[in-house]
Structures are given as C-alpha cells and as structure tokens.
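> call design_seq(struct)
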C-alpha cells in the first residue's frame, strides 16, 4: 500500500469506527428494556445467552411476540422478520394449520411412552419428498442428525476419516469456520477448501483408503450462503462412489429449495441426507436417512445394530406439526418461494452494482447473506475476508429501519413475506447505501 493510500485509509477507518460507535449508542438508547432483561439474564446464564448465534454486542434484542412475518421487541419496536429463525421459521410465527396440529396432538396426551400413530406417517411423507431417502430416522436437531449419519458412515465402512470443508456448519459440535472448533466431536477430520476442485481432488486421493465419508452442505448456510458449484459436488459424488466412502449431503437448510432438496435440483444422489429446521413446523426437529442397506444398521431387529435412542425423537407435537408443515409447503410452494428469493437477491445485487457499493448478496432461492467485499465469494475464506465493520453497521441500520436479520447478514424468507415486505427491504438497503456511501466512495 502506498503512503497516500495508507493516509486515505486511516481517516476512513476512523470515520467508520465513529459511525459504528454512534450506531451502537443509538441502539442502546432505543432499547432500554431489552438491555434490562439482558442484564438480568446474565445472573443465571453465561453472557445472558444459551444460543450463541443470537448474541451480539452491546446486547441482543429481547423479542416479545411475533405474528405472521413480523416481530415486536420488549421496547415495542416492530420489525419485518427477514431472519426466519435461520431457516427454521419458514411458516412465520402464527401459521393456523401448524398451531391446530400442535393442539390436536396435545389433546391426545403428551409423552405417550411408546410408538405413536404419527411417526410412521411422517416418515412416509419424508421419504416421498426426498427420493434418495429409502428409510429415515428422527432426531431433535440437525446437529444430532449429522452425528448419527457420521456414526452410520464409520460403522458401515469400517473407516475413520471424515472430509469436511472450511466455513461449514453441521451443528453446534461439528463446525469449521476458521478450522475445527474445540467443542467439536473428536472425529478424524480432514478439512478442505469449499469449491476448490483441484485441492479437494488431491485430498480425496490422499485419503482414499481411510475416508469413511464426505460431509458437505450443497450451500454453506451459516457460513455465508455460498453455493457449491455443481462440478464440485459431482466430483465428491463420483470419487466417493469409486472409493467406497459415503457422500452425506447436509440439506438441513437447502431442503426447502425444491422437492428432493438441492441434490434433486442437480440430479446428484447422496448416500445419506440430513434434514432439520422448517420440516418440524418450527419445532425442534432433525432427521437422517438414505439408502436402505445403510440405514439397516439402525434396525433393532438385526444383530449388532447401532443403537439410536432419544426420548423426544418421535414426540407427538413435532410429528403432528411436521405433517402439517409438509401440507403447508407442497412442491409448488417450494418452487414459488425459490423464485421469489432469486428475484429479490437479483434486485439487491443490481442495486449494489449500480450504486458502486462493495456489497454482494450470495445464496440460493430464499436463502441469502450480504458480504461487504469486491471479491467473488466461493469459500469460507472469502466470507471472512469481507469488511466486518461495514456489515455490523449494516445490521444496526437495518434494525433502525425495521428490518430484522442476522448480525452476520443472513436472510431467510418465510412464506408470509410478500412483495410489500421485499420492497421494504430493498428500500432499506438503498437508504443504507445512500447514507453510508462515504465509506467506499
């Protein structure tokens, strides 16, 4: 960097830091009740928190209630919810069909201590919806689903190594943003670079005899809504088929894109697929399934079967809500939501390009994330390289405009979001660009 460039960057950095300080101060002044409740929560929870992703400085909002696609916080501010509970809130906050299904399940008794009439029906619907799933088992989260899928892979192949990718998130104990985390389960991880064809091919060849599975998201979800390039996924499919490793596609988020999920759109058949989020109708839910011969490892009628317990795996509330969710989200609704999201993301990116703002919205269909960068975003390192201070300023400006999204810039559309709400988002982004353009002009 030249001397003149450094001198220009310093005032810009100082001005951005000052703007961020002002935004945080304005946020604090506007949300005294949220701050009071946060301070009280800190007495009994570390950092007043039991779900890390929701935390941000100086303190997170306390949400009081929701209706359709709108939220109200403890201080009475109203927001359009563009976060969609990180894809779990597909149906909005007050879907009557799901509420009715929950009430009906509760009316027949809670914790029935045995198999119930709903679980087999729900399993049949899941297998029908996802053609690569011959048999399925239910869990309480996507984290559990991925853990059990990995157990099936290591047990059935007799191998130990798992290939994953930097920037991936497969659950609270299987996360790889910036490498493996101290909280991760102790598998023998091999960490590759997302969308890196040559580097991944080298890793696959080097570990050909010891690789039990490749675990991959068809789009880095929590890691920045970075789509996998089709040739990258096809490489993984072809190599695992040849080497005897299993291909596990984590479609916890991308399953909403179409019948069969992202793999159905691309014509790629996974050996095992993991699911979660919206498929439980907004309740705690996860599932994993795949080819019959692999899933047979969990059949308790067979010798040396793999045990998979879980008090709430088949709980009547989630089973009932899940059936209602599938009724509320038929194939045509999935296709329409994907088109709506693609159109919104295209409009936002056109706005950024026309204004010269160093911003890009990546994603697929109804899932997207904003990045403050001029580089092409293809992997986890590209996400991390973006300007995080501008992203934080964007977050606070969106809240002040009545737009609720993730601190990291993630957006997940819900079904109640329509053209007027999308217009509110586009206008808020346009206002941000106009108001903050001095930081890149």
């Amino acid at each position: 960097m030249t001397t003149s460039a450094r001198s220009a960057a310093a005032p810009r950095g100082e001005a951005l830091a000052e703007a961020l300080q002002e935004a945080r101060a304005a946020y604090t002044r506007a949300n005294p009740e949220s701050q009071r409740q946060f301070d009280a929560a800190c007495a009994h929870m570390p950092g007043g928190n039991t779900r890390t992703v929701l935390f941000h400085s100086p303190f997170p909002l306390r949400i009081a209630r929701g209706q359709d696609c709108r939220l109200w916080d403890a201080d009475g501010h109203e927001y359009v919810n563009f976060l969609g509970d990180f894809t779990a809130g597909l149906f909005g906050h007050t879907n009557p069909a799901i509420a009715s299904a929950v009430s009906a399940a509760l009316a027949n008794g809670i914790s029935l201590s045995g198999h119930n009439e709903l679980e087999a029906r729900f399993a049949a619907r899941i297998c029908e919806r996802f053609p690569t799933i011959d048999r399925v088992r239910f869990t309480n989260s996507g984290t559990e689903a991925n853990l059990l899928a990995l157990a099936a892979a290591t047990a059935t192949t007799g191998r130990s190594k798992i290939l994953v990718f930097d920037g991936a998130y497969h659950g609270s104990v299987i996360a790889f943003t910036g490498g493996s985390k101290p909280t991760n389960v102790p598998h023998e991880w091999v960490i590759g670079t997302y969308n890196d064809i040559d580097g991944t091919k080298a890793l696959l060849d080097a570990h050909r005899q010891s690789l039990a599975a490749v675990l991959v998201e068809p789009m880095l979800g929590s890691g920045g809504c970075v789509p996998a390039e089709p040739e990258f996924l096809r490489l993984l499919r072809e190599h695992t088929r040849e080497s005897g490793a299993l291909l596990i596609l984590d479609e916890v988020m991308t399953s909403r894109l179409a019948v069969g999920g992202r793999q159905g759109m691309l014509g790629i058949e996974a050996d095992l697929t993991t699911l979660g989020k919206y498929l439980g109708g907004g309740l705690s839910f996860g599932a994993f399934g795949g080819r019959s011969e692999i899933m047979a490892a969990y059949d308790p009628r067979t010798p040396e079967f793999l045990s998979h317990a879980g008090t709430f795996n088949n709980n009547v509330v989630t089973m009932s809500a899940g059936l209602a969710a599938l009724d509320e989200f038929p194939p045509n609704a999935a296709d329409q939501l994907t088109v709506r999201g693609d159109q919104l993301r295209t409009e936002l990116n056109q706005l950024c390009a026309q204004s010269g703002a160093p911003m890009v919205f990546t994603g697929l269909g109804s899932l997207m994330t904003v990045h403050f960068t001029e580089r092409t975003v293809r992997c986890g390192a590209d996400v991390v390289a973006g300007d995080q201070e501008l992203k934080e300023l964007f977050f606070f400006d969106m809240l002040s405009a009545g737009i609720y999204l993730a601190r990291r810039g993630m957006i997940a559309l819900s079904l109640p979001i329509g053209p007027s709400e999308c217009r509110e988002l586009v206008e808020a982004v346009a206002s941000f660009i106009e108001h903050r353009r001095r930081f890149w002009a």
